[in-house]
Amino acid sequence: MNFSKKNHEHKNKNVIDVSKKVILSVAVIAALGLTSCKNETKKETETTTTEMSKDMAMTDLSFGVRGNCGMCKKTIEKAARSVDGVASAEWNRTQKRIAIQYDAQKADVMGVQEAIAAAGYDTEQIAADENAYKNLPDCCQYDRSMAMNQTDASEAAHEEHAH
Is 118 exposed, middle or buried (CB count within 10 Å of its CB: 0-12, 13-18, 19+)? Predict the structure, then answer.
């Protein structure tokens, strides 16, 4: 009888040990799950806030830039986007005008024009670096007296008629 009582006590102890391990495992998994969900929610909130503040700080602006061809377009836009805070740059070959979108807290217009001038292109306010201009490919060496910031024909026609 003594033997069966010990065996029964041993089984009960094993059941209690296994139960404790199962409960502990479930508690750890639940804690990890809750912590993971909490962090994901926090990250989404931070991202949304950051995106909203970026939209609020963006400024759109355009100004004249001399150039000739598709290679000029690539170089001018690349120079403008190299300035920290510039989100987009689109140079219009016909109008000789670049439209930029930038964060006014990180970049300023003069900094963008300086970067473009350093790449060899005249802007409305800054003449191109002479050495950079001379190192441009032949097709990119524009007439330095050409007009900039032109309106296209459809804009000019629209301005002529009365509203």
Answer: middle
